[in-house]
């Protein structure tokens, strides 16, 4: 009789252990998914930018890159905003000021504008970085 009782207890213990392992494995899968999603959100949030960021960069480009308004007079607003949004994306992704200045040079070539001095583009790149990270300033 003791052996039958021992077998029942062993069976109950083994069922409990298997059930517990199943719960732990489900929790582990859920935890792994949760950790992966949290990491993805953390990484993707670095590249999110708002309309305020683009508007701030566009304002800096209008006032500092072309203070007289003569160079950008023939440029469609849509192309100008597209350039500003690409600059914001580069800045939010961690591009250096030299890289942003090179992008400004590329935009000058694409838009058919005359080249601005390298020092001027570098100074504007620093101002664009401040505007992209702090749009209210």
List the helices and strands and how they pair.
Elements: H1 2-45, H2 51-65, H3 77-92, H4 97-111, H5 118-133
Helix pairs in contact: 2-3, 2-5, 3-4, 3-5, 4-5
Task: Walk me through the structure.
- The chain is mainly alpha-helical and 137 residues long.
- It has two domains: 45 residues; 83 residues.
- The protein contains five helices and no strands.
- It is rod-shaped, with a radius of gyration of 29 Å.
Radius of gyration: 29 Å
Portion of residues within helices: over 70%
**Which assembly state applies to the chains in this document?**
single chain
Unreliable runs, pLDDT <50, ≥5 residues?
none
State the domain count.
2
Beta-strand percentage range? under 5%
Helix/strand order, N-terminal first = HHHHH
> What general outline do the C-alpha atoms trace?
rod-shaped
Tell me the major beta sheet. Answer: none
- The whole-number mean of residue pLDDT values reads 78
User: How many angstroms does the end-to-end distance come to?
Assistant: 85 Å
How many helical elements? 5
SSE class: mainly alpha
- Count of DSSP strands: 0
């Amino acid at each position: 009789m003791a052996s039958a009782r021992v077998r029942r207890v062993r069976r109950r213990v083994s069922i409990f252990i298997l059930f517990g392992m199943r719960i732990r494995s489900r929790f582990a899968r859920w935890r792994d998914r949760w950790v992966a999603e949290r990491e993805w959100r953390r990484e993707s949030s670095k590249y999110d930018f708002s309309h305020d960021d683009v508007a701030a960069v566009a304002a800096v480009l209008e006032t500092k890159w072309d203070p007289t308004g003569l160079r950008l007079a023939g440029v469609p607003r849509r192309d100008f905003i597209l350039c500003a949004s690409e600059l914001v994306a580069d800045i939010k992704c961690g591009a250096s000021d030299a890289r942003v200045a090179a992008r400004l040079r590329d935009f000058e070539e694409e838009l058919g504008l005359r080249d601005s001095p390298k020092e001027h583009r570098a100074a504007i790149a620093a101002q664009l970085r401040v505007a992209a990270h702090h749009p209210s300033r």
